Amino acid sequence: MQRSDLSEKFLWGAATASYQIEGAVKEDGRGPSIWDTFSHIPGKTANGETGDIACDHYHLYKNDFELLKRLGVNTYRFSLAWSRIMPQGYGAVNEAGIDFYNRVIDCLLEKGIEPAVTLYHWDLPQGLQDFGGWANRDIVERFAEYAELAYKRFGDRVHHWFTHNEPWVASFAGNLQGRHAPGIKNIAVATAVSHHLLLSHARAVEVLRNSPHGKDAHVGAVLNLYPCVPASDSEDDAACARLADSFQNRWFLDPLYKASYPSDMYEKFESVYAAPPVQQNDLSYITAQKTDFLGVNYYFRKVIRKARADELSGPDVLHPVLPYVETKPAGAPYTAIGWEVWPEGLKDLLIRIRDDCGNPPVQITENGAAFEDAKMTADPVYGETVADDDRVDFIKNHIQNISEAIDAGCRVHAYYVWSLLDNYEWARGYSNKFGLFKVDYKTQQRYWKKSGIWYKNFLEN
Ligand code: NOJ
């Protein structure tokens, strides 16, 4: 498996997100986001950890981009903190925030790295949450205004845009499970949020197409997708796996590609008075705003079985309308978060997208793993290095599956490792490490990991 096995134009990158790395949450006029609020509520995050300082990337971006350059990537995916450039989320623009992203973009371009920008990676300005956030349909226009500002100020140099990152997580982890900001546990709020995220995605695509820089730009949404497979041969488990697929994957894929919601899930939500607030033409409008690619974040597969009656109110069941649980096959390898290592799942997903969504171009916008990273070794060139052989294998095997999917006719043209740096893994705090580089949070020193060195060598050859 070599870089040259894939197209010369293939985009190789690493990815990050604003709240997970920037820190400097009160600097230069940045307004608060729902993650500032949520992470400061006692008990919401591991050890009460917040993104206040994170990787201090706000100050260390030049150093970090030097590492990016040494990796040899040709693209870098990062997100804008909406409240850095519009502190309330609407109205006044904060020029100091615009300046920061101008510096970031220019620094990347100087190093020959293409900036690829996510508009929304979960850090909604608190000023908009105060009006109901994504549950209030007005936010669709607020997002369109914010997107327009970003295109206007950065679109002369940024040609790759992602509208939303993992709307499933923003909707359901944030508003049904309550384990992410804003910490709401209400199924009707969650489905409303999901619908407005989809609508605002479509509006942001439309605004880009009509913007002066629209012609040179590529845009898509980023979904977290999982092959959902039954835990046994039973018809019950198979039916549950289909439902899980509707909820995890089709809830966002079908509106994007088929102008509908999957009927089985729609009916489940309707049965508890939580159907999304769809207005006439919403779905045809969403599908009509054609994207240039689908962004796919792939981490693991879901192995599904029917829940027993006594499990229906347990912690593993999201809601009684979803009568299944996720199981962990014995003997399989798992990451430090407990996600099964299943590289073949990426190929399965890509083939499914080929067959179900009209074979759109695809970017793997995130793929990576959290491991313990306990062992350090001394390297003559790179100094103190993390011996993360498990992550090397993880990345290698996933790239191998992408290559096989391309051979099978899938149109994949980008791969981003999650993540450039160890960073703030949301409610899990800092103990789950995904980086190609280790961050010592006390000194803000960065260290190479073997996976970073492997990626560099792979990209060089
Ligand atoms: C997906 C999210 O986009 C990212 O923010 C997160 O850190 C990774 N998955 C790992 O969980």
Short description:
The chain is an alpha/beta fold. It is built from 15 helices and 15 strands. The protein has a single domain, classed as Glycosidases (TIM Barrel).
The gross shape turns out to be: globular
- Which residues form runs of ≥5 with pLDDT under 50? none
The helix/strand class is alpha/beta
Query: How confident overall, as mean pLDDT?
Result: 97
- DSSP, total strands: 15
Description:
This protein has 461 residues and is of the alpha/beta class. It has a single domain, classed as TIM Barrel (Alpha-Beta Barrel), CATH 3.20.20. Helices cover 39% and strands 16% of the residues. The strands form four sheets. Strands 1-2-3-4-5-7-10-13 form an eight-stranded parallel beta barrel, surrounded by five helices. The protein has a three-stranded mixed beta sheet with strand order 6-8-9, with helices on one face. Helix 3 runs parallel beside helix 5, helix 10 packs across helix 12 (282-288) and helix 14 (389-407) runs parallel beside helix 15 (450-460). The longest helix is centred in the middle third of the chain and has 24 residues, at 235-258. It is globular, with a radius of gyration of 21 Å. The relative contact order is 0.13. The mean pLDDT is 97. It binds 1-deoxynojirimycin. 1-deoxynojirimycin binds next to loops.
